[in-house]
Amino acid sequence: MRIIKTIAQTKRLIERVKKSGKTIGFVPTMGYLHEGHLSLVRIARRKSQFVVVSIFVNPTQFGPSEDLAKYPQDMKRDAALLKKENVDLIFYPSVNEIYPPDYKTYVYVKELSRLMCGITRPHHFQGVTTVVLNLFNIVKPDIAVFGAKDYQQGVIIKRMTKDLNLDIKIVLGKIIREKDGLAMSSRNIYLSPRHRKNAIVLYQAVRRIRHDFRQGFSDPKRAKTMMRQMIEKKNGRIDYIAVVNKNTLSPVKKLGAGTLIALAVFFGKTRLIDNTIL
Ligand code: PAF
User: Fold this and answer.
1) Is the pTM here over 0.90, yes or no?
2) Is 211 a catalytic residue?
3) Who has the most CB within 10 Å: 5, 117, 120, 212?
């Protein structure tokens, strides 16, 4: 496994890999890896012959009052985990490498970037699409794998890939959960023991709606109220609860197959997201 920090060296290696006829699978990450990331790496490993993982805490997707400065990092541990997964290359650039001082270009997917997480994080998805397109241009993958926990991000990246005619297959790996149901996230380490315990309610809330939907329940307004009540009982501060079409992200009038239930909730200062598709 190689670890490369520069764009020029990575491009040279990628050119050699392409010439050898191997397909490239790519998993972009911000590091501090957990089982959720590793499950994405395994998908890339199964579906391609040369696997690249990027580790880059992307400053442009954080708002001014967000956790960029304290975002957890542990490159040594990450590298050891990725070696075990047979990853071929870790691309580990500095901020200056990706955003040199004269950097000026941003990529923005209209409308979809303004909904849900985009309401309280108005620049977040522009930061994501900008860095992801940049990474795609460096790594030139055949497939790229993202986590379904960030479902909206997946929809936006698929849209960008289609609109800009990138010949990259975007795959969403399923949400990986802790034993008690909490979706795995690098940010879970911020939670105090009390908040960690209460945060399970996110999974319980989406599971409750799935269950009721199977019993014939179909009212989105009532679904939101039920989830709100469950979450507020556990002292979660709701950013949003969305009951939307999984492709357009627009609100549905009735729950149905393909409805996305998505939540963003603060426990203390930590903002967690979760979702399910009916
Ligand atoms: O999902 C993430 O970890 C990040 O948003 C990504 C895709 C690596 C871009 O920085």
Assistant:
1) yes
2) no
3) 117
